[in-house]
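Before drawing any conclusions, I needed to go through one protein's amino acid sequence and its backbone structure tokens, quoted below without any editing.
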Amino acid sequence: MFFVEFQMHFEKDYSTTAWIHSMIDSTTMLCAPLGSFLGNRLSCRATVFLGGILSSVGLVLSSFASSLEFLYASLGVLTGLGFALSYTPAIAMVGRYFSERKALAYGIALSGSGIGTFLLAPAVQLFIDHYSWRGALLILGGFVSNLCICGALMRPLEQNRAQRIWESNMTNVEKGCMTAVLQTELPEKIPTDWGQAEPKQQQIQNLKDKQGLVISIGTFKNLGLDNDKIQQSITLLPSPKLTVTRLTDKKMAECLLLSNKLETMLEETGVSAKDEFGFLWIPRFLILSISFVFLAFGCSVPVVYLVPYALSVGVKHQHAAFLMSIFGVSGIVGNITFGWITDRKCLKRYRMLSYMVAISMEGLCCMFLPFLRSFSLLVTFSILYGYFDGAYVALIPVVTSDTVGSTHLTSALGVVYFLHAIPYLVSPPIGGWFVDQTGNYASTFFVCGASLFLSSLVLVAASFATNLMALCETALGQKKRPKGN
């Protein structure tokens, strides 16, 4: 809707105007790793709050734009950055809150974008009709500021009863005991968040200044140890050096148990910190990344050009805006239904297959779009395309988690959305260039549909190659086995 208004007001061609939308999406995805980083360092709540401020300011400034170049900076960069800081931490919070029915949880959370599309598409058209596009952007700036409230509501998880008891019991460990243990077990220098190494004595002094068992409140966060792992290791695994019956001093027992487990975990930490981004070399993740690039190129263009295409075939403005509402509602259904279906025990192993089917069907819808030249047929397109779009969006965090594991999910999602950045940046202008050169939308939609098919085909080919290699290895193993066995 804004695309048409910007094009008419600034009298620019399709490809030049399309840079605004592509820069918003590209900046959002390009800065996704920054959102992950700040979410891990500051907290998801603070990062989403900051994102809400930036995106709101960007929209308000855009209402005073005097050129497309101004909109590139205010709407494309500033608002896109705000969305990036809000988007990735919000998705990561879902993974922290839900361990069961994760696909359904992601589906419900991501359906929020569909709800927004459904409600805002006709509302924005009304704002434009009554207040012009400048007034509409100003109103949206105030509306988006509610992201700050959403961020404030993202409260940290409360400890369960077992965790509280564990921390209460362990606060009785003497600080002198802690000093002795740490003096023995810690390396000479300990890396900090900023990559600098602190001397051991300084680190021990920092620990002594804290109340209770400082490990449980994140003193070793710099070392990559999470609280659950520390609790489980210390409380469930006894020291091999001592037996309970021989202990006469409870505090000494606690010190030795703590010392023993800290030694083991600190040895493991050197590997885990080094392998924080080890998922980047997992072959399955590399294949998935290639698929994401083709997906990102093909999926955004139909959304950008659906309203202009509808207007070009004679659909009225209000009806064209209604197509986006239908798209949003259908996306909600796709988010939730695919999330619920793929959470069934019998279907969890087929999540990747479901993801490939959703992408392929979306590509098929895109290729048929140039043949749909009436409002009723475009409604059918919006329903189907929106449904499968919502389906794969809900499955992206799920298939990523299945590929890299939940430990690396936050960092992996940052990389995944980063991979969307360049395709999101170039695909709308390329689509607009095709429209400018040919005078119609057919080539644009065909290219996007082919890109979506390629995204699915990459995964199919990789799956086929993996299964073929497994069969070959099994056959070779049977040939090498002695006949007597």
